[in-house]
Amino acid sequence: MELLVRNKVEDYARWKRVFDAQEPAGRAAGLTVARLWRAADDPQQVFFLLEIDDRARAEAFMNAPESAAVGRRAGVIDGEVFFLEPAD
Fold first, then answer.
1. Contact at 8 Å (CB) between 18 and 66?
2. 50 bridge partner residues
3. φ and ψ at 28, to 5 degrees?
4. Which residues are CB-neighbours of 40 under 8 A, at least 6 positions away?
5. Other beta carbons within 10 Å of 88
6. HEC profile for the chain?
7. Domain spans, the chain
8. Residues 43-65 pLDDT 10s
9. Model confidence at 88, in pLDDT bands (50, 70, 90)?
10. pLDDT band, residue 78 (cuts 50/70/90)
């Protein structure tokens, strides 16, 4: 399973510093960054694809109060999360 995330951010450089610093915590929760993109017409729109080991662990990590605090520190304005599975 994979997880696709979209974040609208105040400042990409600030967001990226916080995002990179969170990699060890994400790995501990079974999340691995597979891809990272910025929208061509709006560079403050960031998309990233995560490979996940276990959906329940990923949801617990993302719903933890600490994750919301990290988002605020990173300058996330809003976002969307999509759990993806292969389609037949």
1. no
2. 3, 33
3. -60, -25
4. none
5. 2
6. CEEEEEEEECCHHHHHHHHHHCHHHHHHCCEEEEEEEEECCEEEEEEEEEEECCHHHHHHHHHCHHHHHHHHHHCEEEEEEEEECCCC
7. 11-74
8. 999 999 999 999 999 999 999 99
9. confident
10. very high
CA distances from 25 to 39, 42, 88 (A): 26, 28, 33
Residue 66, both tokens = 């600490």
The pLDDT of residue 70 is: 94
pTM over 0.85: yes
Which CATH class name applies to 11-74?
alpha beta
Among 32, 14, 24, 29, CA closest to 64? 29
Spatial contact of 4 and 82, defined as CB atoms under 8 Å apart: yes
Cβ–Cβ < 8 Å for 65, 5: no
- 70, 18 in Cβ contact below 8 A? yes
